[in-house]
């Protein structure tokens, strides 16, 4: 999901023949933790959900691995990926 300037707001990455989530990153979550100076919590969050790339996405949508989907499909995949990547009981 991107903003009006093509900067990523949230990122989902799926891999494999039966696509499984390997990342579901959101900078707003990490920045909130960082602003509270919770370095260990930030590291856990990044390890669990991945790291969102920095910079605009212009040109990256043309890569082989990029797929355009509807907003509703993104939301479905996003929530499913976050749930799958969440630690047990978290």
UniProtKB/TrEMBL annotation:
It comes from the Bacteria. This is Uncharacterized protein. It comes from Streptomyces argenteolus.
């Amino acid at each position: 999901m991107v903003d009006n300037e093509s900067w990523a707001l949230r990122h989902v990455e799926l891999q494999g023949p039966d696509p499984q989530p390997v990342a579901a990153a959101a900078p707003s979550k990490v920045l909130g933790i960082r602003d509270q100076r919770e370095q260990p919590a930030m590291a856990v969050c990044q390890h669990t959900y991945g790291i969102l790339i920095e910079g605009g996405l212009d040109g990256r949508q043309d890569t082989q691995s990029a797929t355009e989907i509807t907003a509703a499909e993104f939301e479905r995949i996003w929530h499913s990926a976050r749930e799958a990547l969440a630690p047990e009981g978290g």
